[in-house]
Amino acid sequence: MKKLFFSTLLSIAFCVVSSAAVRTPDTLRVLSIANSYGEDAVEQNLHDIALADGHVIIIGNMYIGGCFLEKHWKNAERDSAAYSYRKVGVDGKLVKRPSTSLDYALRDEKWDVVIFHQSSGLSGKVESYEPWLTKLLKYTRERVPRRCKMMLNQTWAYAIGSTNPNFPEYGFSQERMYKELTEAYAAEAKKHRMPMIPSGTAVQNSRHTFNRENVTRDGFHMQWWFGRYLVACTYYEALYGQSVVGNSYVPKNLSRRRIDIAQKCAHAACEHPMGVTRVDFDNPFDTSGGNWKPDYINTDPSKIPAYTLPDALTMQDGRIVTTPEQWYGERRGELLELFDTEMYGKAPGAIQPLVEVLEEDTPALDGLALRRQVKLSFSTNKFVVVLMYRPKGAEGPVPAFMGINFDGNATICDDPGILRPGEQRAKRYGIYVEQPRGRWASRWPLKEILSRGYALVTFHCYDADPDYDDGFRNGLTPLIYEEGQKYPKDDQWGTISTWAWTMSRVLDYLESEETVDASRVAAIGHSRLGKAALLASVRDQRFAMAISNDSGCGGAALSRRRYGETLKFITGNFPHWFCTNFLKYVDNEDALPFDQHEFLALMAPRPLYVASAEDDSWTDPVGELLAYQEARRVYDFLGLDAGLTGYHLREGEHDLTYEDWAHYLDFADKHLKH
Ligand code: GCU
Fold first, then answer.
1. Nearest alpha carbon to residue 57 among 87, 86, 27, 33
2. Best mutation site among 443, 528, 573, 617 for ligand 1 pocket (most ligand atoms within 8 Å of CB)
3. Residues identified as active-site
4. Topology of domain 25-271, per CATH?
């Protein structure tokens, strides 16, 4: 392991923080005096982690949202019954008692440990801890058994791009916040001779694995599954002094791989609390530090395993598809259902949004186009802003390309008239790095698209579902939840599915208006959004054409080849993209009841275009071509013209370029201009 210590803190680290784990009586009784960070840490997972190692634990958590040390003290002084007292009993059940005072909670059990922390925003401000912590400790000692240990929980720094209102205090720098809060906790821990639970360091360690920012759900609170589990692992090890690595408790909704990252990052933090440890973990992004694992990400074509593709024309029950009617009537539906339930996750039926035209047709782009911006609201605060350009002066409804954009409508060109509400909405979700206007203009050659007679329709992927692991709280996903449901079921939609579904809702809108011909819309997408464009058009046969640009793993590339990006990588790094059922096939690709050639074949009889780039080995261009060729066999079987499908491999890297568009426009001219 490579350790990145704060040099100045090295000396205090050992005497203060890595000290005594708490004695473990038969039942450990732990009380946290906290806020939402404590809620993230102790109310779930911790009990089960302890139990898996044979420990009985009773956990109390005194909760007030956003509470800071000074306020805790004032509550103590005034004996204010201001807390929600949550208690996890020996049976693991959480019981909430409203309106509780600190005095009550401190006397409620014979606590072995009481844990304090500062509110996140004040954590790095050492002057904010005193005299409150001193007073609180005295108050606590007067009410708990003599043997009771006091501990401090180190809170964690905000996500890069977090919009937490306290982030400016740290110059919007995660690194600075982490450093300052660690120094402050260490100073207080030393002063009061109390051990620190290094949660903030565990979080920071996880950010230095390929998991990166997939640890908070909104830029500061822990992500429901991974983040909360990570912090609970850290508490466990700090409380029991026993390594959490290998602990057998399996939390919900986490792959084995993410459990492993959490355990190792927590363990490394407990060993080295004062600075980031780069956990020696498969980190496919990092080719520099010896972490590159060729056995994990295969870049050597000679190592592609032998595999047999499922035959697109054989039904699950072994029957051979012998007629086009059987394909369209039986096999197509069977495959679609499998892709929906085993990979992308089922989407709901159409939901009618509230349509609000934010901007009527307005001349734009030097008179070449008419721009329109429309807001589709699915519920309060859940809305998608659609940006449309169509050729000015076009007679009658025009064909269109519909593609989702990565970073906001305003990034597709430097037209100052493009509204940025999608971005503000994303900002509310706490994690968004602002991109300048026109940032991605090279991917959207508007002049060519418009002058060839097409409209362009786009929206920001974050509007449909933010592209990070937020426990599926923020995007449109919760629209499907039944009462009490908090997470998609194993076969319900992941983010790619949500993006695809939203494309269909935008198509619904196009059907309701008269400038774009909704029966001549090509779904287009690059990379992850290419996966979404394929899924949208495979599912929704109203899309007249699909264009996959470098969509790779989970898109046009065969999964069984395990070349470039693998299922292990994609589900570990983008845990939100697919449904939970898909995890079954990680490292188990041969068990997949389908492969991506069948996904492409589902486009038949409509036009399909697949494109790859030579230097884009991550997407496995060969795997894309092979899938395309296999899909083509289905088109042939169905008696469809060779011109209905297209493929190109261009020189260069992973990108959507002018050259790609030149092919797409020619292809569209053939099929959408009648
Ligand atoms: C990553 C990811 C790919 C994805 C790509 C993108 O490389 O691993 O699956 O296609 O990002 O969307 O640009």
1. 27
2. 528
3. 527, 654
4. Rossmann fold (3.40.50)
- Determine the atom of ligand 1 nearest the C-alpha atom of 554: 9
Find residue 357's DSSP bridge partners.
374
Distances in whole angstroms, Cα of residue 117 to Cα of each of 13, 62, 545: 18, 12, 56
pLDDT at 20 > cutoff 80: no
For a mutational test of ligand 1's pocket, the pick from 527, 548, 596, 610, i.e. the residue with the most ligand atoms closer than 8 A to its C-beta, is 527
Q: Ligand 1 — pocket residues by CB below 6 A?
A: 527-528, 552-553, 565, 570, 618
Whole-number pLDDT of residue 6: 30
Q: Where are the domains of the chain?
A: 25-271, 329-351+393-672
Q: Tell me the fold of 329-351+393-672.
A: Rossmann fold (3.40.50)
Structure-block tokens of residue 250:
């399996």
In 3D space, the residue among 317, 300, 464 whose CA is nearest the CA of residue 377 turns out to be 464
From CA 48, how far away is CA 610, in angstroms rounded? 47
For residues 480 and 386, the model is more confident at: 386
Q: How confident is the model at residue 292 (pLDDT cuts 50, 70, 90)?
A: very low
Q: How far is the CA of 28 from the centre of ligand 1 (A)?
A: 45
- For ligand 1, the distance from its centroid to the CA atom of residue 24, given in whole angstroms, is 46
Centre of ligand 1 to C-alpha 602, Å, is 23
Q: Do domains 25-271 and 329-351+393-672 have the same CATH topology?
A: yes
Q: What's at 241, amino acid-wise?
A: G
- Omega into 466 within 30° of 0, i.e. cis? no
CA-CA distance, 309 to 312, in Å (whole number)? Answer: 9
Label residue 578 by pLDDT band (50, 70, 90): very high
Rounded to the nearest angstrom, the distance between the alpha carbon of 528 and the centre of ligand 1 is 5
Distances (CA, A) of 46 to 40, 205, 252, 261: 10, 19, 13, 17
Q: What is the pLDDT of residues 395-448, one digit of tens each?
A: 899 999 999 999 899 999 999 999 987 766 666 566 666 678 999 999 999 999
pLDDT (average), residues 95-117: 97
What DSSP line would sit under 624-637, residue for residue? HHHHHHHHHHHHHH
